Amino acid sequence: MARKKAISPVIATVIIVAVTIAVAIAVAFWMTGIIGLFTGFEQLQITSIVDRGDQQNPGIHVTVRNTGTSTATITDVFINGRPCFTGLQQPACQVVVQTQQGQQQQLNAQNPVPIGPGEAVTMVIQILNEQHFGSDIGPGVSLEVKLVTASGKEYPKLIVLQEYNP
Length: 166
Fold this sequence. Notes:
Distance between the termini: 111 Å
Strand content: 35-45%
Structural class: alpha+beta
Shape: rod-shaped
Number of domains: 2
CATH topology of the largest domain: Immunoglobulin-like
Helix content: 10-25%
Mean pLDDT: 85
C-alpha cells in the first residue's frame, strides 16, 4: 500500500490565515474606494476680501477657493446677517462672479454659482439698498460678509470699509 502524506496542521493553519488576511486587505481597499465616492465634502476658503470704494471698480471684492473634494454651490450672500437675495422681491445687492477662465455670471436667487474642487472665483458685491442691512454703510464701518451654499454651510468673513480718496 502506498503511503500518502498530507500537509501538517500548522502549515494548513498558516495558509488559511494568509489567505484570510489577503482577502481582508482586498476588501478594505475596495471599501475605501467606495467610501471615497460617497464622502466628498465642500470646503470654501475666503482667501481675500477687499473694499474697492473707487469709481472705476466699486464694491467688495471677495476671492473664494473650494479646497474640498466636491462642488460647492453658492446660493446667497448675507451682509450683517441679512440676505442679499433670499425672500426679497428686490435684491439688496448685486453680485457678479468671475471665474479663473474669465467668464462672468451674476449670482442671484434663481442663478446659484457652482465652484468645483480646486477652483477659485472672484465675487464683486455692490450694495444696492443700504437700509436693508440696518446701518449706515460707509468708511470705517465693519461688515460681516457671509457666503451660504446649497448644503446650508456658511462661510463668514469680516471687512472694514475703506474711505475712497480719488
